[in-house]
Design a protein that fits this description.
about 30% helix, globular, binds manganese (II) ion, Phosphoenolpyruvate Carboxykinase, domain 3, 29 strands, 16 helices
């Protein structure tokens, strides 16, 4: 396979000229190809087959121990003007960035195969889908891209028809963190990534394309590329509401997207559209419609069990690539909180020794096709996407943020999103558990200045009267002893239900300075072992603490200087004033 599109052929030729691979292979996306690539990796030791009786089609990849997460400090947005990248991104001038990274790419593929991966983000027939080609020297990336995107022949056909595609160049290089960079050139629709084989750094269709480059494109084209799961919530009458939720990495998006309703919620059903990324477009009727640009899940493994996420637990028992988990004596994958089996070998491939830390890496991952998911919604393939009733922001916060509240209107909702703060997780290299601002859960992923991004969000209120209602949730409140106040997981449906009842104008709630909170009786707690006091705690607004919070939000917003939209400043001032009156 080669291509009739000369711009693509010329780019592939020039990359080969720079990186000097032994051979070039164009991926067609077929099953035969996938099986062959997997077999080759098993031969070379990059993959290990797991127990094929209990885990048919499953394989294990152990990465370099220094290459287990995203590297925000080595990730750059290279726009002509530094201001366009904004204080939220690392910036390098495009020429300097190309020069620096091309020097690392020179000869990087010697002795290796260069794979050309045409892919489509979104249903192949969708007007909202976007195209890309990733060039990589990693067979692991090829296999993962096959599971995560619509990859191969049909994508190439559309690329040749449209002529426009995002160019992604990737090499694992020598895996030395000193020579690792993830660079984005949104003005050129291109990405260059070297020195890492890990998910978000290497599967360029995902965070690099579908969020950083796409968010930049979306701004000029009038849509939104967001770090959101998409879920359909069906009530016992068969009515389905679609909800999009933005939570930071490793804060439970996959669990919520695949939730199994608790015993108390007979007749309810959850349909998964996506677990990580949503592209939102306004249709002619003024409704926001969402598609999931991805076709698979790259989820956190530890903590997955029959209680927390039975759908995921079942789904990853076949045709799954595991990265950096432990294994049992029987060669089954093992991870912390799996609730069965014991580890024999840890994620580094050593004999398991509890004194050297967890057996599975805290950011160990499964890669699996969305088709494996028992709650998969066929509408995930609908070209027109699904209409969104509610947008939900959330973070991981021990204190302050109530279980749920609703923004007063769209513009206030933009402030709520811009104010999101969350404890850092193992999804990025760095300290874990530190609260930081993570607006719209996009801090690591917005491909341009956050101030301009908030202006773009605000601009939607002039375009439609039928926008989704905006909410904020926090599943992670703890008491002084560190015990979680809310049971979470499947029980989160009780909160989602209130959100939907608000959208249907059936739940009243009451107004507070930070937004609408549920009246205590409006969250169904039947069958839950949760006291009235705890619910009160979860659904209260501590005025003094919120005043401090709003001071900190104000400082954060002002750090964006003149570019900060006046409307956002106004929303902030309104909340400050209402808190003052309430104090
Ligand atoms: O590493 S990924 O960016 O793909 C997953 C995540 O951190 O959200
Ligand atoms: Mn994510």
């Amino acid at each position: 396979m080669t291509t009739t599109l000369s711009t693509l052929q010329e780019w592939v030729d020039s990359v080969a000229g720079l990186t000097k691979p032994d051979s070039i292979y164009w991926c067609d996306g077929s099953d035969t190809e996938y099986d062959r690539v997997i077999a080759e990796m098993c031969d070379s030791g990059v993959l290990k087959p797991l127990n094929q009786e209990s885990f048919p089609g499953c394989h294990l990849h152990l990465s370099d121990p220094s290459d287990v997460a995203r590297v925000e400090h080595l990730t750059f947005v290279c726009t002509t003007s530094e201001e366009d990248a904004g204080p939220n991104n690392n910036w390098m001038a495009p020429n300097a960035a190309h020069e620096k990274i091309d020097a690392l790419f020179a000869g990087a593929m010697k002795g290796r195969t260069m794979y050309v991966i045409p892919y489509c983000m979104g249903p192949i027939e969708s007007p909202y889908a976007r195209l890309g080609v990733e060039i990589t020297d990693s067979a692991y990336v090829v296999a993962n891209m096959r599971l995560m995107t619509r990859m191969g022949k049909s994508a190439l056909q559309r690329i040749e028809k449209e002529g426009t595609f995002v160019k992604g160049l990737h090499s694992t290089g020598d895996l030395d963190p000193e020579r690792r960079f993830i660079m984005h050139f949104p003005e050129e629709l291109s990405i260059k990534s070297i020195g890492s084989g890990y998910g978000g750094n290497a599967l360029l269709g995902k965070k690099c394309h579908a969020l950083r480059i796409a968010s930049y494109q979306a701004r000029s084209e009038g849509w939104l590329a967001e770090h959101m799961l998409i879920v359909g919530v069906e009530n016992p009458h068969g009515e389905v509401h679609y909800v999009a939720c933005a939570f930071p990495s490793a804060c439970g998006k996959t669990n919520l997207a695949m939730l199994i309703p608790p015993e108390s919620h007979k007749g309810w059903r959850i349909w998964t559209l996506g677990d990580d990324i949503a592209w939102l477009h306004m249709d002619e009727a003024g409704k926001l419609r969402a598609i999931n640009p991805e076709a698979g899940y790259f989820g956190v493994v530890p903590g997955t069990n029959e209680k927390t996420n039975k759908n995921a637990y079942d789904m990853i028992h076949r045709s799954t690539i595991f990265t950096n988990v432990a294994t049992t004596e029987d060669n089954e994958p093992w991870w912390e909180d799996k609730k069965s089996g014991t580890p024999a070998t840890d994620w580094r491939g050593n004999d398991y020794d509890p004194s050297s830390g967890p057996a599975a890496h805290p950011n160990s991952r499964f890669t699996v096709s969305a088709r494996n998911n028992p709650s998969y919604s066929a509408l995930a393939d609908a070209p027109e996407g699904v209409p969104i009733s509610a947008i939900v922001f959330g973070g991981r916060r021990r204190e302050l943020a109530p279980l749920v509240y609703e923004a007063k209107d769209w513009n206030h909702g933009v402030l709520v999103g811009a104010s999101v703060a969350s404890e850092t997780t193992a999804a990025n290299v760095g300290e874990v558990g530190v609260v930081r601002r993570d607006p719209m859960a996009m801090k690591p992923f917005c491909g341009y200045n956050f101030a301009d991004y908030w202006s773009h969000w605000l601009s939607f209120s002039d375009r439609s009267e039928r926008l989704p209602q905006i909410f904020h949730v926090n599943w992670f409140r703890q008491d002084e002893s560190g015990k979680f106040l809310w049971p979470g997981f499947g029980e989160n449906l009780r909160v989602i239900r209130w959100i939907i009842e608000r959208c249907e104008e059936r739940a009243h709630g009451h107004k507070t300075p930070i937004g609408y909170l549920p009246n205590p009786a409006e969250i169904d707690t039947s069958g839950l072992d949760i006291s009235f006091e705890t619910m009160k705690e979860l659904l209260s607004v501590n005025i003094e603490a919120w005043q401090k919070e709003m001071d900190s939000v104000g400082e954060y917003l002002e750090s964006y200087g003149d570019r900060l939209p006046e409307a956002l400043r106004k929303e902030h001032a309104k909340v400050v004033e209402e808190l003052r009156k309430a104090s």
